[in-house]
Amino acid sequence: xxxxEQMGSSKAPKGTTxxxxxxxxxxxxxxxxxxxxxxxxxxxxxxxxxxxxxxxxFADPADRASSEELNSIVFRLRDREHKMxxxxxxxxxxxxxGEYGICEDCGEHITPARLMARPVTTLCLTCxxxxxIEESLRQDRSTL
Length: 144
Ligand SMILES: [Zn+2]
Fold this sequence. Notes:
By secondary structure, this protein is mostly helical. It has helices at 4-9, 23-57, 64-97, 112-117, 125-143. Zinc ion (ZN) is lined by residues 103, 105-106, 108, 123-124, 126-127.
């Protein structure tokens, strides 16, 4: 939903508070993302290879537990990597759609500095901070 305030602020002259990420910056971020993606795939292959070669060594049933433990670690690691892969793919897709660098919450441009530091982010610093405050409040309440 677009509010009147957002309509007004989108007409603000560029380069004042928040400027759009340039094509050069986006190309740089894109190559970074693709490199990270390739890294994850490489590491993933190594992790699977290690896990399978290690589990073959655990022929003794007494050692099977540690083998299963290892597999669960590998699984968690891959789960985290899967999430990162998904985030990177979504970022690349947003670049193709021309939506990259736009906060999905308020519709403002995310600062190039923030995009350089956190290329997969979908929120501007203001919205991210607000989200974090809300999350910490929710956690506080759930621990009561
Ligand atoms: Zn925002």
